[in-house]
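Bug report (template v2)

What were you trying to do?
Predict the complex of my protein with nicotinamide-adenine-dinucleotide.

What happened?
Run completed; filing so the output is reviewed.

Input:
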Amino acid sequence: MDLGLKGKVAIVTGSGSGIGRQIALTLAGEGANIVINDVDEGKIKSVASEVRSLGVKALEAKVDITSWEAVNSMVENTLKEFGKIDILVNNAGVGAFGLFADLDRKSWEPDIKVNIYGVLNCCKAVIKHMIERKYGKIVSIASDAGRVGEPYFAVYSGAKAFIIGFSKALAKELGRYMINVNVVSPGTTKTPLVEPLISNPDIVKNMLKAYAIRRLGEPTDIANAVAFLVSDVSSWITGQTISVSGGYSMI
Ligand SMILES: NC(=O)c1ccc[n+]([C@@H]2O[C@H](COP(=O)([O-])OP(=O)(O)OC[C@H]3O[C@@H](n4cnc5c(N)ncnc54)[C@H](O)[C@@H]3O)[C@@H](O)[C@H]2O)c1
């Protein structure tokens, strides 16, 4: 199936690592030009060179998505470089681990800033342009933690649930402009984020009892769903949250 992504322009936040890196590579493999956003310059450069080796353009954007001004300038630079933005993938995310009763208040501030303000900043910064063009695809990466509530990740679960509710409302506001807004909700996927957990075989064995398909996710599992949702093949799908989690949650 041709997804028709050749020549499209996609901003992928947090694409220096893990799932975001794979989303960037998968969309680039389909012919899209990619804005590689992260806070880590080394990772940005490495993924940008992987993207370019696929024969498309990469714009490097070392930007902290929690800063409205910085996100705005990333969007302006993207428009200067490519003249348009077709796709926004809100992928960057962080999660504080620990029982809520034990966590220091400061430790979960990044959960709110990155997972909530980051998504709000990026959506707000691109939609004016998308509305003018009457075209756009926004996909945000939530988590099944946000659908079922994950102990030891209480604030993260709440922040990811925010993304799901916000995306439904935004989909209703923007559908008339041919802008699709959807959410991909991963289960535990092999990336540096969860390395401390999944490097312990006993934890993984226990964890997999809750997965109908008894394996952890690969970044490609998530990236393939994103590629489908940012393409016109799925243009009548909006406001949806699709779990890509081996059946961890079935809602
Ligand atoms: N890996 C999993 O098991 C899993 C499960 C469910 C959901 N998710 C979600 O998938 C997304 C990607 O996670 P991952 O596992 O690839 O994590 P990761 O830690 O490998 O990658 C996240 C990237 O985001 C970047 N980032 C963090 N804060 C940023 C900021 N303020 N501005 C710009 N970039 C920033 C980091 O530098 C990093 O490169 C996250 O939203 C995460 O919550 C992951």
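What did the reviewer find?
The chain is about 45% helix and 15% strand. The first helix runs from residue 18 to 29.
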